[in-house]
Design a protein that fits this description.
- It is a single chain.
- By secondary structure, the protein is an alpha/beta fold.
- The protein has helices at 5-19, 70-86, 96-100, 110-113, 130-140, 151-156, 167-176, 192-200, 216-223, 240-246, 263-271, 281-290, 292-313, 318-321, 330-339, and strands spanning 32-34, 60-62, 90-91, 120-125, 144-149, 181-185, 205-207, 253-257, 276-279, 326-328.
- It has one domain (5-339): Alpha-Beta Barrel (TIM Barrel), CATH 3.20.20.70.
- 42% of the residues lie in helices and 12% in strands.
- The chain has an eight-stranded parallel sheet with strand order 2-9-8-7-6-5-4-3. Strands 1-10 form a two-stranded antiparallel sheet.
- Helix 1 (5-19) packs across helix 9 (216-223), helix 2 (70-86) packs across helix 13 and helix 11 (263-271) packs across helix 13 (292-313).
- The protein is globular and about 60 Å long.
Length: 347
């Protein structure tokens, strides 16, 4: 069976995501300082990093990446085994190609077959119907569903959609879904205005998907024979940290994805209000460059590091972490002022 355009695009996305792994905009974590506590009065054995989110054991997940081609099916099998070994939640890449071409479902299902008891998130675009959403969940026997919103990617993509009416479709899926629905930006960040709109239609979970991680505007530009004016969108949008500042007053449960490169980045995101943190490009980079075993070892070292960092800061759990002092760089404080946002408490 010849490879379809959509299937080939999945391979292009993986190749270009790896090519541009380090050539991404800044996620903003270096502009956030946690204040050192010289007398933390705690011990690593006292610390819990278990989030109050579903039944997750860890406050981070392997977030949406790939699927839809033979090569990406192999990657999904590797990622599924890593998630199973480390008890990490894992999200699928967009399954829309498998709904159009059912033979490609086998490139996504290793996320479940290699991870039979794990927490798996299905993934579709926000223009999907609720019937398609249920089919995507059933394909992976998924525990939750990510609905990605990606106006900038679609705008730059040569064959991208040009209709960005999504709220009605999201509301319909939320109303019919028997699993939690997470609305996820793919790399251009979130605003408090958008969260107000999502809250009004019944959404409870959002992934801010900030600028600083995998850059789909850059990737789609590279796929064009003549990028033209689209190159200007390569650093467009709100960074992950700016997006977290946008959601300070939101009642929604927040996941932070985009440019997470270290356990300290995870801690900073959790301090700024995220209930959990998503990692995509970093994991893909490890798997491609170093192999499955090395990627697993790297993630295991992050798991071991998190409670040590919390103990050194004097935080016994994630709730206590949110009460620790934080200092924002002037650029971030200026962003907060111009956007009329609430500073993360305590200030």
């Amino acid at each position: 069976m010849p490879e379809s355009q959509q299937s080939h695009r999945k391979d292009e996305h993986v190749f270009l995501a790896e090519k541009y792994f380090r050539a991404t905009a800044d996620a903003g974590f270096e502009q956030v300082r946690l204040v050192h506590n010289p007398l933390p009065e705690t011990a690593v054995s006292d610390v819990s990093v278990t989030p109050h989110l579903f039944d997750w054991q860890w406050p981070f997940l392997i977030n949406a990446m790939t699927g839809g081609s033979q090569q990406t099916g192999v990657l999904n099998a590797q990622l599924g085994r890593i998630a199973h070994a480390l008890h990490l939640p894992i999200a699928s890449g967009s399954q829309s190609v498998a709904l159009r071409e059912p033979a490609l479902a086998k490139t996504f299902t290793p996320l479940r077959s290699e991870n039979p008891d794990g927490f798996v998130l299905a993934n579709l675009g926000a223009s999907a119907t609720w019937q398609q959403a249920q089919a995507a969940v059933a394909m992976l026997d998924a525990n939750a569903l990510e609905l990605h919103i990606n106006a900038i990617q679609e705008a730059v993509m040569p064959e991208g959609d040009r209709d960005f009416h999504w709220l009605d479709a999201i509301a319909d899926i939320v109303a019919h879904s028997h699993v939690p629905v997470i609305v996820k930006e793919v790399g251009n960040g979130m605003t408090h205005e958008a969260l107000t709109q999502l809250t009004a239609i019944g959404v409870q979970y959002v992934d801010v998907g900030g600028r600083g991680g995998t850059n789909f505007a850059q990737i789609e530009n590279a796929r064009r024979s003549a990028p033209g004016p689209w190159t200007a969108l390569a650093d467009f949008g709100q960074s992950t940290v700016e997006s977290l500042l946008e959601v300070q007053a939101s009642p929604l449960t927040v996941i932070a994805t985009g440019g997470v490169r270290s356990p300290l980045d995870i801690v900073k995101a959790l301090r700024l209000g995220a209930s959990a943190v998503g990692i995509s490009g970093q994991v893909l980079h490890w798997v491609i460059q170093d192999g499955e075993a090395a990627a697993q070892a790297q993630l295991a070292s992050w798991q071991a590091t998190l409670p040590v960092l919390l103990a050194a800061l004097g935080a016994a759990d994630l709730a206590a972490l949110r009460q620790l002092p934080v200092v924002l760089a002037p650029e971030l404080r200026n962003y907060v002022a111009q956007r009329q946002l609430t500073l993360p408490s305590p200030d």
